[in-house]
Amino acid sequence: SVSAESITPTANINERKIIYKSDEAKKRINEATTLNLLFKNLDRETKQHVVDAMFEKSVMANDIVIRQGDEGDYFYAIEHGIFEIFVNGQLVLEVGNGGSFGELALMYNTPRAATVRAKTDGTLWAVGRETFLLTITSSVYRKRSAYEEFLRSVSFLTTLDQSEFSKLADALEPNNFEDGDTIISQGDPGEYFYIIEQGSVNVSKITDMGTEQQLPSLTVGDYFGELALLNEQPRKATVVSRGPVRLAALRRDAFVRLLGPVMEIFRRNAAEYNLNQQNTTGQTRQESGENH
Ligand code: 1OR
């Protein structure tokens, strides 16, 4: 299953694999990987390393790309096509353009956890085990270590256990903002939840009366953006960075999946926020239990 056990990058080859590619092929790889979480956190040089080592694999509908139980050899990024994932013969997921699969067996050195079959004709970009371990796994590992330390210091997360911290660390996306940037705007749909890693933010809202109300500012270890995800409603406030700000962002699906254990805290604070709404100006979150 998809677990968050310890990852130990052990590959130590020095020679770097380079498979020649046209600019057009590089462009296609770029388009196929920009939204992928596993590629998002790679620095430019590491990404180049991965792209250099990739080779193109064309598949036809019904081809089996990965068989459950086999040893892991390649990781695949999907350029186009739809792929069905089966666990013990049961269809559990379909992945398409911009998605990927085959990372688990390589990262955790376990047998393939699922069978992957092409539902349509398609094009994949394959990365061999050694390159994968040297680049993507190492980067996931570095990111996990860096985030875990921070997450343990965040007070609203103290009820999480080790494996929950690891999964959360893997799913967080670093986001940097400059002084004065608008991070979320009141009225917009909400797709992300944020924890402040560095810096602080100003929070304000336009009230029903049409006046602007300043809400308590937030700083390191505080969170915002949960209300829109909890209630599936538009953003209730505008958040603007105050100096340079570094945030750890969590997408809606991961928020629901990984922060289950702290939903009660969010709901309780949200309820208090409603009670205190009229007199929040100048207070801190600790005083008002307020959040956004
Ligand atoms: P792999 O190297 O084990 C099969 O080869 C791949 O299928 C696996 O890496 C993942 O990339 C992909 N359970 C197991 N493997 C999955 C799953 C999955 N989803 C995608 N893969 N589950 C679905 C989670 C929504 C869990 C089902 C119980």
Task: Describe the overall structure.
With 292 residues, the protein is of the alpha+beta class. It folds into 2 domains: 23-138, Jelly Rolls, CATH 2.60.120; 153-288, Jelly Rolls (Sandwich). It has 10 helices and 14 strands. It has helices spanning 23-33, 37-40, 44-53, 103-108, 129-152, 162-171, 226-231, 252-258, 263-276, 285-288; strands at residues 55-59, 64-66, 74-80, 83-87, 90-95, 100-101, 115-118, 122-128, 173-177, 182-184, 192-206, 212-218, 223-224, 238-251. Strands 9, 10, 11, 12, 13 and 14 form a 6-stranded antiparallel β-sheet that branches. Strands 1-8-3-6 form a 4-stranded antiparallel β-sheet. A 4-stranded antiparallel β-sheet has the order 2-7-4-5, with no helix packed on it. A hairpin with a 2-residue loop joins strand 4 and strand 5. The longest helix has 24 residues, at 129-152. The chain is elongated, with a radius of gyration of 22 Å. It starts with 22 loop residues before the first helix and ends with a helix. 32% of the residues are buried. The model is unreliable at 280-291 (pLDDT under 50). It binds ligand 1OR. Ligand 1OR binds next to strand 4, strand 5 and helix 4.
